[in-house]
Structures are given as C-alpha cells and as structure tokens.
Amino acid sequence: MIWVKYYFFTFADCENLLEKLMARRKTVNNTGILRVSGIPYHDAWVAYKCVSCKEMNYVQIGQNLISPKEALENAVWKCKHCGFIHSKETDLPFDNWEEEYNSADSTTALRFWEGFFRIATEHPESLWKQCNVCTRILPFNAFSRHSGWGPLEKQMECRSCKGAINAVLNPKRTREQLHESAVRRRIADLFLEEENEPIDFQDLFDRFGSRCFKTKEQLEINQRAMWAIDHILPSKYLYPLRRENAALLSRSANDNKRDKWPSKFYTNTELIELARITGANIDLISSKLPIMNHNIDVNKGVERYLQVREKSDLPKRIKEIKKILLVYDLVDNLSSENKKLLGFE
Ligand SMILES: [Zn+2]
Ligand SMILES: [Zn+2]
C-alpha cells in the first residue's frame, strides 16, 4: 500500500506524480523486450506523402483528433524533406497539370486539398501511432485493439512487437521453424566445410595462458569437459574456425556466448585484448551489428548442397538454397554458371 498525502498537492502535481509512478511501472518487464519510455503512445499521428518530393511525413496531432474540415482550415504541414508547405493556401507543384489548375485560388487546387486532408484525417483508421517498443510510427491497423485506451483505442506496442513479446511468454517453436534453422545451419556448415582449420589445443592454451578468456578461471587442457573453443565470429555469419577466430573459454562461458556476435558478449577491453592475442580484425569484432562474411567460396557450398540423394526433393532444396543466398546477400558471389543454374539470371 502506497500512501500519498494528496491534499498537499495541487491537481497538476498529482497528475505528474501519477504519471511518474505509471512510467516507472511501465519499465517493469520480465520479457527482455523493453518498452522505450517517453513515447507518447496514446497520441495520434497523421502520415502523408509530400505532394512535391513524395517523401513520407508524420505529424503528431496528439489526443484530440481533428476532422478533415479542421485540417483543411488550419493545417500548415511542412515537409521535413523538401520544405513544401501543405496547406490550402499553397499552390500545387504538379508540372503535368495546366498551370492555372495548380493555383491555390483555383477550384481544382481546393478540391485537391480537400481530398488530401480527408485522406489523412477522415477516420481513426486513417491515423498512425508510435509503437513504444520498436518506436516506429505505424498505421492504425498495425496495432491491436485495446478499448478505452486513448483516442485510437489501440495497444501500446505494434502487432510485430506484440508477437515477439508473446513468443517470449510462449516460446514453443513450430516444426517449420526447427526445420528452417536446421537448413540454415546445414548450409552454413557446407559453405565452411573446407575453410575451417584444425585448432592446435596446446597453442590455444599457451596464447590464452590456460585461462578462460571471460572468467579468467584456470583450465586443464586434459579435462576436455571443462573448456570449449569459442568461434569468436560465429559460423552462423559464415566465419570459418581458424587460429585467429578461436578463443579459449570455460564450458559455461561458452554456453553463454554460443553464436552471439563478439561485441554482444565481450566488453570493449576484452575485445581489444582478444584482437591482441588472436590477431582478429578489431573493427570487425567490435562492430555493433553482425556483418556477414562474403569472403567464402559460395560455389563449392552450393555444389555440395545440390549433391543430393536420388529420392530427395530437389525443387525444395533449390528453393531453400536460393532463399539463403538472397538472405545472406551472396548471389553476387556465385559463378555465372551457378547463377544460371539456380535461375538468378
Ligand atoms: Zn517534400
Ligand atoms: Zn513495434
């Protein structure tokens, strides 16, 4: 029970306090998918394409929705990209129209502006809202209904983020998902098959002083269950296991690292030290986002993947490898023969 001596506060103070309490509560979250504080998630936004440069613009209109008529009368929306002013007092910019039809005094321009503001504000369905998880401003139907919540009666998070949050709460993976991740792993392994090098354990222990690089605990080379070789840049991103891509970790530290990108697991100091010990590229291992390795022989991987048993489903395998090549942005690495074979040209 929280006691608030509310009679010491003005009404506005109370509202502020309440807001602060609410804000604190909002960040309490055990899904690992955090809400971004300060997002006015009840506010409505108008989204429109600039009639001059055709770029997207968003106008925060708050919680009091406006009618098309009000918008037509009052709106002065300036394009953030080119500065064009969207108002019924503005001449239209269309050079494929007769000059006089563009003039703000003309009936054609007035009808155009009426339609423009009607499209933007006619229904709640025309409006947009900001997701307080991914922070994108998205159209009305990107949010699920939450009756009584703000003028749009929509949830705080978009349906994409909602889906992710629900997945944390119910982490069951579908059979297709399991199949797809197995396919991705198999293809990555095939691409790397001839690129991996055997690791000299004694050399690894010497370089890392026989200690786990993360926890600094002492490791015994003969107790194989105690330690593991960290694939610093993961095979998931198509980096082969080589001397400069191997770190010594305790088994439990390696279980935490798994296929994380190095900068998501190691601290900055550790990344510098790691580059010093292994000769790894510091720019690469400290990159915030994962970078796919394109410096591999894709053609060999494709050939190995298509060496299939007589009875297997060839069209399916072709579809799978094509998708992976597109997702990994490796199509350009294919020989023209393989591009033709797979139907990329
Ligand atoms: Zn513009
Ligand atoms: Zn979202």
Structural description of this entry:
By secondary structure, the chain is α+β, with helices and mostly antiparallel strands. It is built from 13 helices and 10 strands. The chain has helices at 11-27, 68-74, 99-102, 107-121, 159-169, 175-192, 201-207, 251-257, 268-278, 282-285, 298-306, 314-327, 336-341, and strands at residues 44-49, 56-62, 77-78, 85-86, 128-130, 137-139, 143-145, 154-158, 227-231, 246-250. The strands form 5 sheets. Strands 1-2 form a two-stranded antiparallel ribbon. A two-stranded antiparallel ribbon has the order 3-4. β3 (77-78) and β4 form a beta hairpin. α2 crosses α4 (107-121). One zinc ion binds at residues 50, 52-53, 55, 79, 81-82, 84.
Query: Given the structure, what is the number of helices?
Result: 13
What integer value in Å does the Rg equal? 29 Å
Q: Which spans have pLDDT < 50 for at least 5 consecutive residues?
A: 1-14
- Global outline: elongated
Order of helices and strands: HEEHEEHHEEEEHHHEEHHHHHH
Q: Please provide the count of β strands.
A: 10
Summary?
The protein is of the alpha+beta class and 345 residues long. It has 13 helices and ten strands.
Layout: helices, strands, pairs:
Blueprint: H1 11-27, E1 44-49, E2 56-62, H2 68-74, E3 77-78, E4 85-86, H3 99-102, H4 107-121, E5 128-130, E6 137-139, E7 143-145, E8 154-158, H5 159-169, H6 175-192, H7 201-207, E9 227-231, E10 246-250, H8 251-257, H9 268-278, H10 282-285, H11 298-306, H12 314-327, H13 336-341
Antiparallel strand pairs: 1-2, 3-4, 5-6, 7-8, 9-10
Helix pairs in contact: 2-4, 6-11
